[in-house]
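ligand=uracil
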Amino acid sequence: MDLNDIAKEIAQCRKCGLHQGRTQTVPGEGNPRAEVMFIGEGPGEKEDLQGRPFVGAAGKYLSQLLEMIGWKRADVFIANVVKCRPPKNRDPLPEEVETCTTNYLFRQIAVIKPAVIVTLGRHSLNRFVPDRIISRDHGKPFRVKGQVYYPIYHPAAALYRGALRADIESDFRKLPQVIAKAKLKPKKLPEASALDNLNKSAKIDSSRQQRLLT
Ligand code: URA
C-alpha cells in the first residue's frame, strides 16, 4: 500500500456527508519520504477545485514561510485532517475528522513516517492531543508514543490577525532545529503528559495568584 493507493481510495470515499459537496478530494501532496508533514484543517474553495492542498491565500503564505527557511513545498508533505471541503468552509465536525483521519490520514502518516508532524491550527493539533491550546502551546514540540509534534498557528489565522505573524514566523524558523532534535535526541523533547502536568501546575499557580490578589 503506498500513498497513491490511499489517494485512489480517498477519491472514491463516501464515508461521511462531506463527499456530497465536493468537486474533488484533496488527499495531500509532496515528498513521500518527507521528514516533516504539515497537517492543516480541510480544503477551501481553491483546494476543492484543484484537488491540491493549500493553494489559496493561506497556501501562498505557507509557501513563503517554507521559502523563508530555505525549503520548497516539494521537500515536505502537506495534508489536511479532512480530505473534502466542508460546506461554506465551516469547521469540520468531530465525526468527520474522526472518520477521515482513521481511514486515511493516519495511514498516510504510517507510510511517510515523518520525523516531525507540524500541526497547523487547532483542529489539527486537537486531533492528536485533545487538550492542547494553540495560543499557549504553539512553538513547543512534544512527543506522543514516539511521534514528535510541533504545533504552530494556521497560516490563515496569521493572515487574518497580523499580530500572529511574528509568532508563526519565529516558530517556523525553529523548525530545522526541532527536526534535528527529533532525529538525534527525541528523548530530550517532552512527552505530551509532562507538558500537561506543567500546564496544570501553571494554572494552579495562576489561580493561587488570583486568590492572593483578590
Ligand atoms: N486551509 C487548510 O487548512 N487546508 C487547506 O488545504 C487550505 C486552507
